[in-house]
Amino acid sequence: MATRNASILRLRNRKEVVRNYGFIFLVSFLLALRVLAETGSVTLSTIKSLTEAEFGFRGYVYFFGGGGESAGSGSDLITGATSVAELSHYSWNVQIWFGDNTRNSDRLALQAITKGSVVQFTNESFVAALNILQHDILAGKIKSGQQLLLVVDSHGGPGGTGANDLGIVSTGNGSVSRNVLEVVKKAAELKGVKLAIIDASCYSGESLELGSAKTCVVTSTNQKNIAYIQQPLTLFRTMHSFFSRGSNLEQNFLDSRGNKNYGLNWQSFHHMQISTQAGMQTLNEIEIFDSVAATDDTDPKNHDQFSAAQVNNINNALREVQLRHLLPPELNSTQIMNDLKRYVKLRVVVDPLLQPDKICGPTFGSCMSFMNALRENRDLSLYPPLFHYYQLHKAEVTELGVLVQRLSDIELQLYARLYKQHTREHVNSPNPCKDFYF
Q: What is the pTM of this model?
């Protein structure tokens, strides 16, 4: 009996030691964070986000997507919606608006993940949801310091010539201006809610205008280009894999952008963008790559070559990065310029595979179906007109694929070097992307 009592006493003592050490560790951790805050190493809002991310509720996610295509169309946006829906497993409150009236089965699948209702994505439901969200922020239902993530993953269009025109987002029954997002931005900034926007639609670079010292914006492309699901999907999955590590949105963006394994399309080499000060400066400096992929930068009289002004701009930009020793040692500006010129000529040959109402059918979805089949090595004979054209120009398509990969790798290296440089320049500036934690 004495031996048994002694064993019980030792066990109790061990448990007490574990509890004491655990308490001491927690107090030490919180004191260390307080010291860091007092010395200016981190802000109190950063500490609040870190502790919430580690010990409880992470924030709100509103997802709007699947507009502009019906069930069975070539480009399936359900992949991105599913990935975002899974954030609900990691202490995020996720609400979803998805697809038109043909996507009921997709909405049911998303409901099974989030355990909440999934609403049809229409012009009316989009605007209504944003207005309700604005009201909830102003009424204090979403509190100061809490995190709010808006995700737009749909088809989209570029802005017009008017001032502050951010272009459109396709819904299940039409399209809505991206400018409607501003009502949430203004409310969030007024009430201290930490807002991040991920726009994965075509021409989503227009949304970078919504970025500020208090709002983070990440886009799947710039203002001039269409977008593809592979790039934002990499970001969504990166957010999943880094949850337990307390990463921030800026780091997730950089990790995803630098990942070369997300399946580049063979006709363009543009990449994701971010609204940080470093990101906007870098975007301006590498526009030679992001704008070349847009066909409106070629000479209208000779559309298989650059205009004289464009050649001059590209040469000046390349000369600048070479003078700053930002080009990899094995590259030179002349070689890059020749690659860009060849790229434009090849695009003229390949682009008919991407143009609705020509050889691929009445909608962009039919073009995407062929592109996906080509990328995945599936049976191309199911698309007779496109397959015939592809057989005639297979050599050009193959060459373009190799060239796109090479130019893409150069763009990634340049972006990483420039971003790192500009980050050092703005180390003491507000960075809402760095302060948004997962």
A: 0.81
